[in-house]
Amino acid sequence: MDDEDIRKSDGEPSETPSPEEPGKDGGKPDGGRKSEDKQKKNIYDQYRYWGNDGKSPKGSPGRNRIALIALILVIVSFAYIFLMDTGEAVRTETSYSRFIDLVENDAVSSVTIVEDRVVNYTLISGEEGTCRIPYHDSTLLGMLRSHSIDVSGAVQPTPLWYIIIQLLPWVIFIVMIVMIMRQTGAAGGNRMMSSFGKSHAQLYGKNDKKVTFADVAGQKEAKNELQEVVDFLKHPDRFVKIGARIPRGVLLVGPPGTGKTLLARAVAGEAGVAFLHTSGSDFVEMFVGMGAARVRDLFSEARKNAPCIIFIDELDAVGRARGAGLGGGHDEREQTLNQMLVEMDGFSSDPGVIVMAATNRPDVLDPALLRPGRFDRQVVVSLPDVQERLDILRIHTRKVKMEADVDLQRIARATPGSSGADLANLVNEAALFAARADRTTVGMEDFERARDKILLGVARESVYMTPEEKKATAYHEAGHTLLHYYLKYTDPLHKVTIIPHGRALGLTMSLPEKDTYTKNRSYLEDRIKICMGGYVAEDIVYGETTTGTSNDIKQATEMARRMVTEWGMSDLGFISLANDDEPLFLGREITQHKDYSEETARRIDQEVGKILSRCMDETRNILTVHRDQLDALTDALVEKETLDDKDIREMFGFPPQPHVTDLV
After folding, report:
1. Which residues are tagged catalytic?
2. Global pTM?
3. Domain segments of the chain: what residues?
């Protein structure tokens, strides 16, 4: 069948001009024939393939083909129902009177009555038969029971039921095939696969709720760096006239929870532009090429909404250095990274699109990603200092009803090393503690409990300790505590408790007066002595120690070793003997190696031992001299379980703690 026959059979008029009509090219026979052939091919293609809307044109071969398949399946099903063997044994049809005679002669073993119309019976000899009941016989059941015949009933399935049972699987199969064909039609494009290539980025438009720099506490240096990006998006002509070029990519680097995503949204809010948010893991797929397709779609969407900011969170999930994995250059992740490199600085780059990304592992990123022209500016988003922590607490407590005794400055001092997310969680936990106690305001005690829960774990007040264990724990914590008042370079004591928290049976907490970024040798040695306080106290009182000192020993040893190998605080002098390098994707312990001789390793061990031995002697001397205070503090802990700095100073007559200057 040629193309002309196809068109006629489908009920469509022929597009071929009649012999009297001139060709469309001015009457030239050859040119007209070529034009007709082209028209035939276009019409044939329209009927051969599915339309762009996923629907086949009426009367097309594609739809007729499906209808033909469905008709064949229906015919096969009917043939199966009526012609194929059902698997049942062949029954001999007899008269009803013959059946009655067989019953009276005790020749029937079982009977099945089908809807009071048909009797299927089985003889004792094993032969099967059937008969029809010509009238309603009320004596039949009594007769069967009197001859001890097994009687059962059955329902005769209708032909419609057979049809439904046979056709239902085929109907489901055909519907699935049709749906797949509509999704993967030739002219309509591969829709099912193209949906995988769509970016998962969320678009925040200009009219959405804005986040500005006022919503970000602290991070002044980071805000100043990002303000240039805001100015460029607001007033690009000012930069273009002078010949300046804004960085195409800005990489936010910092620990988790420091507000990198919030800063990126603040840039979009300040500039009043669209904001596309996605993460590095959104590009990772099991299908080859899907990651690169999503990168293309992401940048295409950004160009449609330009000026626009693309923010990629956790960039290290897709931007790790190439060639370090097992997949080589054909690794799917590397192909995704290649596409991202091209989009950021290739022929299709757009100055109206700025890419911002966040990571806490800049050391594993590919160098090509960090070169000028791509992520050529890195903004460090560090952990907040004490003043910034106070500002963050003020922001998160705006909607919290607090009591008058709440001292946010004290909380800020007591949370060194906490990120903005940690502080937000602290405020929320404090509010939860107050709500559990059926109070409408949050007090200072709630904040203390919330901080202890986050930093140390939940207080396990239900843990039962024998009086001996409780007193031994009290001696251990008293040894730590007492050293705070006799060592010069230590942070002031905050509180001590023998209530178990997390894995610890007790704890001693100090409260730094201010944030410090460098530590001298005297401070580190005093920290080692405080770690030894529990061990020495147990040894002085009981003549032996417990397993509860394991963490203290680990901390003290690690600190002493770093003093020798990293910080040059030993007789070995100015030399670095630590090895922080490790190949990508491999663990530190597996790849650790030494860049020094065995003799140097022996000297390192000797220096570490000297530091620990000197600190141990001084700690033992202090606790031995003040043994009476050690016993008194232990008794007070056993009685009250928790003591703060004020209680201890009043107990021993120590001078009050110096006043700390209030924060602004």
Report:
1. 477
2. 0.60
3. 3-48, 92-156, 202-380, 386-456, 467-652
